[in-house]
Write a structure and sequence with these properties.
Strand order of the largest sheet: 3-2-1-4-5-7-6
Order of helices and strands: HHHHHHHHEEHEHEHEHHEE
Number of helices: 13
Distance between the termini: 48 Å
Structural class: alpha/beta
Strand content: 15-25%
Length: about 325
C-alpha cells in the first residue's frame, strides 16, 4: 500500500521537497501490522488536504493546474492501492468475528503478554495518537462506586480523581494482567477480581451496583458477539438513572479511506500481532443493539462521543435510562 501511495518516496521526503515544515515523529506500533501505515496515510492526507504552496517558504511557483494534477495523482494512487489491497486479500481474509478470543484463550494469551503489554498500549505511541489525552479526559469523570473491566496492567489507574471515588473494583480475565496492575496500586482498599466480563459481572456484583463502569480497549478482543455480551453485563451492574459507562475503544475510522483500509487489514492485524483485537468495530452500533435488546430493562443512551486520530479511537459517555 505504501509503495502505491508514495512510490519510492516517503511522505516525509515529499513534504520536505514541497516546502512543508517537518515535525519529527516516532511511532512504535510495530506489533500491530497496519497501524504504522494507517498513521502515515492519515498524516499524508491531512497535510495535503489543505496544501497551498503559496503559503509556504519556497521559491517555486506552482499553478492551480499543477496543484489539481498533484491532488488527482494522490487520489489515483490511493484508489489503486485500495483496489489492489481488496483484490489480493478478499479471498484470504475471514470475518472479523472469527478472530474474537474465547475467554479461556484470552486469559492464557494475556498472561503471556502481561510483562510487555505497556510497550504496545502505553508510551510515546499512545501519546502521538492521543490515547493518553483520551484516557485522562474520560477516566477523570469516574465517580462514586467504580468498576473497571479489562483493567489490564492498570494504565488508567493514575487518571482517576480519587477525591471522587468511594470504591474501586478492578476486573480482568487474566491473572497475569492483574498482578501487573497491583504493582501500580498502594491503596489496599482497591479490590482486584479475576473474572470474565462477558458473563460473570451480574453474578459477582448484582444489578445496579456501581455508579461508574469503565472499559478501555477491551471490546475489540471479544469480537462483536462478546462485546455485546460485555456491554449487556456492564449495563446491568451500573445504576439506573444516575449511573454511567465510560468507554474508550478501537473503532472504524470516520475517514472512508482509513475505514476501508481497516476493513481489509483487520483480520491480519488481529492475528499477526494485534493480540486478538479487531480494530474496526462499530461501537455505536453495538451500544444501540444492546439497548434495543434490553427488553423490559433500562436502555443505554450515548451522551457524549469523541473521536481521536480520525476516529480510529473513540471515547463514549453512556447513561442508563429507565
Amino acid at each position: 500500500l505504501r509503495r502505491f501511495l508514495w512510490g519510492n518516496q516517503t511522505p516525509t521526503t515529499q513534504r520536505r521537497r514541497q516546502g512543508h515544515v517537518h515535525h519529527p515523529r516516532q511511532l512504535r506500533l510495530n506489533e500491530v501490522p497496519g497501524y504504522s501505515h494507517l498513521y502515515r496515510a492519515q498524516d499524508w492526507f491531512h497535510h495535503n488536504d489543505d496544501f497551498d504552496p503559496s503559503n509556504q517558504t519556497t521559491t517555486t511557483t506552482t499553478t492551480n493546474a499543477t496543484k489539481s494534477q498533484h491532488r488527482r495523482q494522490v487520489l489515483a494512487r490511493a484508489a489503486t492501492a485500495t483496489v489492489v489491497a481488496l483484490a489480493t486479500t478478499t479471498r484470504t481474509t475471514r470475518a472479523s468475528a472469527s478472530w474474537a478470543l474465547a475467554p479461556q484463550q484470552a486469559s492464557k494469551d494475556y498472561d503471556g503478554y502481561a510483562s510487555t503489554y505497556d510497550d504496545l498500549d502505553g508510551g510515546s505511541a499512545s501519546n502521538l495518537l492521543g490515547i493518553e489525552e483520551a484516557r485522562t479526559k474520560l477516566i477523570s469523570q469516574a465517580s462514586g462506586h467504580v468498576l473497571e473491566i479489562g483493567v489490564g496492567t492498570g494504565l488508567n489507574l493514575d487518571k482517576y480523581n480519587l477525591q471522587q471515588i468511594k470504591s474501586l473494583t478492578l476486573v480482568d480475565i487474566s491473572g497475569g494482567m492483574l498482578q501487573e496492575a497491583k504493582k501500580r496500586v498502594d491503596n489496599k482498599s482497591v479490590r482486584f477480581v479475576q473474572a470474565d466480563a462477558t458473563s460473570e459481572l451480574v453474578n459477582l456484583f448484582g444489578e445496579d451496583a456501581f455508579d461508574t463502569v469503565v472499559d478501555s480497549f477491551s471490546l475489540c478482543v471479544m469480537g462483536n458477539e462478546g462485546a455485546k455480551q460485555c456491554l449487556e453485563q456492564m449495563s446491568r451492574v451500573v445504576k439506573t438513572g444516575t449511573g454511567q459507562l465510560l468507554l474508550l475503544e478501537n473503532s472504524r475510522s470516520s475517514n472512508p479511506l482509513l475505514g476501508l483500509y481497516q476493513d481489509v487489514t483487520a483480520d491480519a492485524a488481529a492475528s499477526a500481532g494485534g493480540k486478538g483485537c479487531v480494530y474496526n468495530q462499530n461501537v455505536d452500533a453495538l451500544i444501540a443493539t444492546v439497548s434495543k435488546e434490553n427488553l423490559g430493562r433500562a436502555s443505554l443512551k450515548i451522551e457524549e462521543e469523541e473521536l481521536y486520530a480520525a476516529g480510529l479511537f473513540r471515547s463514549f459517555r453512556v447513561s442508563k435510562v429507565a
